[in-house]
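Query structure, 344 tokens:
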């Protein structure tokens, strides 16, 4: 797609300094900008690059005053970083604004869908699937029976949405996601073998939830596995059966949460965190990467380590742990000195 400086300035409500008709068709870092590219300058430490960049258009703050001649056309805005982000959102909307049903696909006669619907080739829609307006389902997606999908949802290629799942408005489900697979429920019998416990619940994603590529969210044994409004999941996360995650909590990649754990609002959980089942984590909790959580966590705690300790206590303990060989050596020297005195 090609945009002129005038078109971009209209979108961002910016002011042009330079050629209003110059066009761009790609994005670039300011230090790597070349003809036909659009870039931005928000961090002052990159200011020197604006005098050497070959980018055709650069978005800058209104208070930027060049000290040398520029090769690039400027678009001046109140906040260059926010404006560039807004432009990325607009670009994605335009790029992904597909409409219509490609062939071949399979959908039952009981499927209902709203305006501006897109369904990619080789997708499957089961019985009584209900889909809202402005929904985009990319190729090779599987949508099981009785799934409900709200408005403005994007489901990328290869995602698998099992039966009875409920997806709210403005959600994004990335490629390779599996929502609604059976929870890990087995019970041992007298022979030491394991029998499967039927998983009869579902998964609910409330509004504005993002699910990263390769993430799996298991259906509940009974009731629902629930991700509340605004939850953001990174790639390759495992959410087990009957887990509940509170509003606006964000979780980084490779984290695993065991069954029936409840996580509060506005939590931030780092990568590769392991959380046991049947515990409660409060609101506004911060968990550092690679921590292991095996107990209930109160509101506002900051944790690190495995098993996780209070963040401040962990750092103090780590200083001693790092110095442990020196401490042991000093103890050995003292011990030798003591024994030497005893032999005199």
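Result returned for the query:
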């Amino acid at each position: 797609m090609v945009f002129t400086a005038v078109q971009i300035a209209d979108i961002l409500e910016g002011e042009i300094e330079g050629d209003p008709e110059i066009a761009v068709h790609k994005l670039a870092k300011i230090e790597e900008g070349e003809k036909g590219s659009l870039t931005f300058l928000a961090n002052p430490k990159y200011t020197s690059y604006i005098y050497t960049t070959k980018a055709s258009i650069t978005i800058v703050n209104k208070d930027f005053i060049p000290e040398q001649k520029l090769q690039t056309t400027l678009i001046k805005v109140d906040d260059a970083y926010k404006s560039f982000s807004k432009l990325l959102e607009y670009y994605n909307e335009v790029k992904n604004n597909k409409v219509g049903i490609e062939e071949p696909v399979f959908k039952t006669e009981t499927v209902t869908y709203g305006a501006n619907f897109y369904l990619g080739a080789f997708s499957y829609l089961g019985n009584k699937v209900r889909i809202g307006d402005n929904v985009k389902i990319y190729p090779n997606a599987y949508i099981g029976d009785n799934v409900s999908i709200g408005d403005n949802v994007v489901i990328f290629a290869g995602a698998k949405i099992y039966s009875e799942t409920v997806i709210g408005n403005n959600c994004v489900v990335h490629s390779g996601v599996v929502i609604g697979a059976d929870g890990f429920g087995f019970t041992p019998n007298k022979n030491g073998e394991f029998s499967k416990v039927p998983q009869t619940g579902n998964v609910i994603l409330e509004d504005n939830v993002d699910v990263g590529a390769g993430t799996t969210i298991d259906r509940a044994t009974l009731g629902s596995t629930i991700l509340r409004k605004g939850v953001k999941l990174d790639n390759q996360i495992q959410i087990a059966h009957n887990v509940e995650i509170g509003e606006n909590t964000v979780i980084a990649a490779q984290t695993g949460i065991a069954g029936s754990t409840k996580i509060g609002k506005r939590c931030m959980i780092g990568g590769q965190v392991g959380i046991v089942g049947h515990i409660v984590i409060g609101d506004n909790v911060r968990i550092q990467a690679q921590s292991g959580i095996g107990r209930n966590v109160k509101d506002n705690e900051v944790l690190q380590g495995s098993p996780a300790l209070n963040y401040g206590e962990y750092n103090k303990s780590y200083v001693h742990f790092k110095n442990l060989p020196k401490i042991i050596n000093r103890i050995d020297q003292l011990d030798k000195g003591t024994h030497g005195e005893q032999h005199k």
